Structures are given as C-alpha cells and as structure tokens.
Amino acid sequence: MTLGPPSGYVIRFTNGLVVYLSGDTGMHAEMKSVEADYYKTNLMVLNLGSSALTSKEAAYVADDLVKPAAVIASHVNEGATTGGKLRPASRTAAFASLVKGRPVYPALSGKTMEFRTAQGKCVAGC
C-alpha cells in the first residue's frame, strides 16, 4: 500500500487547547517541525490504521516527534476494546504500552471525552 503526501490538521481552541488530527498519514518530518515546534500541539488524535503506522512507529511519533500531553488512538481498524478496556492482544494496546509519559485513550463509540485545558488533560469521559 502507498500512502499519500504528509497530511493532518491542527485545530487551536480559544481555551488554549491545540489538537493535531493526523488523518491517514504515515510518519513525516512535519510532525515535529509543524505540530510540535510551531503549533506546540498538546493533544493528538492519531489514526492507527494497519496500512499507515506500526505500533512502534506510532509510539515514536507520540514520544519523539509531536510530544503531546495526551493521545487519542482512533481509526484502529481492529476490535481494540472490550467493555471499554483495551484488549491486551490488540495493536492499539501494543501502541499504548510503548508510549511513555502521556496517557493514551482509545476512541470509544458513544463515549465523549472532554479536554478543556491548554495542558491537553482529559477532564471528563476519560
């Protein structure tokens, strides 16, 4: 499979929260220069589709390139959770175990998470 050019969106909220939505992209240098250094992203929504990033690559993106306060793992293309908890054998759980120093939240259907602070901390639905 071939990925397209580097992509993603940065959204800055009036409360200081800066969110990077990765979209379906692979790892690219702009994740550090644009999202981390320029925008100072504090929350990342990282798509973990099996065609884009391995768990190890995705953890590198979170830990060394973007460095947000928290990560929401989305678009995982697997049954990553059971009863709202990560399934230990999932790629998503492997990713979460590799990420250091920041929480990783699975995107759960019907569950709303709230990040109201500029520090990127989840304040509800975590």
Can you tag this structure with a few keywords?
126 residues; alpha/beta; Metallo-beta-lactamase, Chain A; five-stranded mixed sheet; two-stranded antiparallel ribbon; 20% strand; globular
Structural summary, described in words:
With 126 residues, the chain is an alpha/beta fold. The strands form two sheets. It has a five-stranded mixed sheet, covered by helices on one side. The protein is globular. The chain has three helices and seven strands; from the N terminus they run E-E-H-E-H-E-E-E-H-E. The protein has a single domain, classed as Ribonuclease Z/Hydroxyacylglutathione hydrolase-like (Metallo-beta-lactamase, Chain A), CATH 3.60.15.
Helix fraction?
10-25%
The best one-word shape is globular
Strand content: 15-25%
- CATH class annotation: Alpha Beta
CATH architecture call: 4-Layer Sandwich
CATH homologous superfamily caption: Ribonuclease Z/Hydroxyacylglutathione hydrolase-like
Task: List the domain count as a whole number.
Answer: 1
Secondary-structure-derived class: alpha/beta
- Give the neighbour order of strands across the main sheet: 1-2-3-4-7
Give the N-to-C terminal Cα separation.
34 Å
Largest sheet: 5 strands, mixed
Q: How many distinct beta strands?
A: 7
Low-confidence stretches: none
CATH topology: Metallo-beta-lactamase, Chain A
Query: Could you spell the SSE succession in H and E letters?
Result: EEHEHEEEHE
Number of helices: 3
Question: What is the residue-mean pLDDT, rounded to a whole number?
Answer: 89
Radius of gyration over C-alpha positions, nearest whole angstrom:
14 Å
